[in-house]
Each structure stands twice: as structure tokens, then as C-alpha cells.
Amino acid sequence: MERHGSRWGGRWLVGLAVIVFALGGGIGNAQGPKPGGWLGKLPAEKQIEAIDRQLRGFDMAMFEVNYRYTEMYFGAIEGNWDYALYTGEKIAWAIENGFERRPKRRANAEAIFLKGAYPPVIDAIKKKDPALFKERFDALRAACNACHAAEAVAFIKVGIPAIKQTPLVTN
């Protein structure tokens, strides 16, 4: 999977860890300075637990996927293919990051989504084909809903985005 770099993009988890370790000499490190702010107010043995609570499980990965899914859709619909590809490729990255926190989600997400409907959508974006994109996007949406059903959260139904998340323009 190709990844486009951005300053923080999908790397916020790594960024947070780097900041915590740079400022605190490592969480729970008795020899180095303690982290400041809200994290430093906690005992060292509770700091990792607090970070885990903030990052939570797979729901935060899905929060990012929702954003990327919507942006990919509007990028393609508006003919901003580079942006559609950029955000589309970040979807897989967000899901992969989510597997670190919730590995039990991997089997369905890989089989139904990452190895199923997702690669053809990326291919349609690379081909800059609006009709092919719409067709494959609909299959992707169905795969999202199938994965949610397989994970016992069928009440989370993914639709076609109706509201653009950012004020980006195509020209």
C-alpha cells in the first residue's frame, strides 16, 4: 500500500508517542523528567493506561476512515483525483493502525474490505474514471456495511456522503 506523507496525517499516534517520550524521557522513566500537562499529573504507572483510553479501540480508526472516505468520495466526484488518491490511500493506513489496538478486527476488515472492495476503488481513482469510481464506490460502501455486520455492529450503516467535510476546491 502506497502512503503519501504529510506532516501528521495518519501519523498522530506516532507523533503523540514521540512527543511524550521526548518531553518525558519515556513514560514511567524514573531517571528522566516527567511529561507535563494532564499526563504528567498522573502517576507513572497510570500514564500508558491514560494514553490507551484517549486513543481507544477501533472506533477511533473508524472515525478517521469516515473522514477519509468522505474526502475521497468528494475528491473523485469533483475530479480532484490526486486528493481522492491521497485520502483513499490513508483509509488503509487508518485501518492498519486500528489493528494495533484491536487485532481481532483484522480478519473481517482484511477479507471483506482491504483485500475485497478497497483495491478496485483505488484502481478506479488511478484511472481517473468517474463512472468506474461510482460503480466501485458503491461496492466499497456495501463492503463497509458487510464488515460492520460481521463485526456485530450492523446498526452502523454507511451511506453515500452528502456533506463535504472540508472547503477544498478543485482548482
Note the overall shape: globular
The CATH class of the largest domain is identified as Mainly Alpha
Rg of Cα set: 19 Å
The domain tally reads 2
Distance between the termini: 28 Å
What is the chain-wise order of helices and strands? Answer: HHHHHHH
Query: How much of the sequence is in beta strands?
Result: under 5%
Quick one: biggest sheet? none
Explain what this protein looks like in three dimensions.
This protein has 2 domains: 9-55, no CATH class; 58-150, Four Helix Bundle (Hemerythrin (Met), subunit A) (Up-down Bundle), CATH 1.20.120. By secondary structure, the protein is an all-alpha fold. The two termini are 28 Å apart. It is 66% helix and 0% strand. It is globular, with a radius of gyration of 19 Å. The model is unreliable at 1-10 (pLDDT under 50). The protein contains 7 helices and no strands.
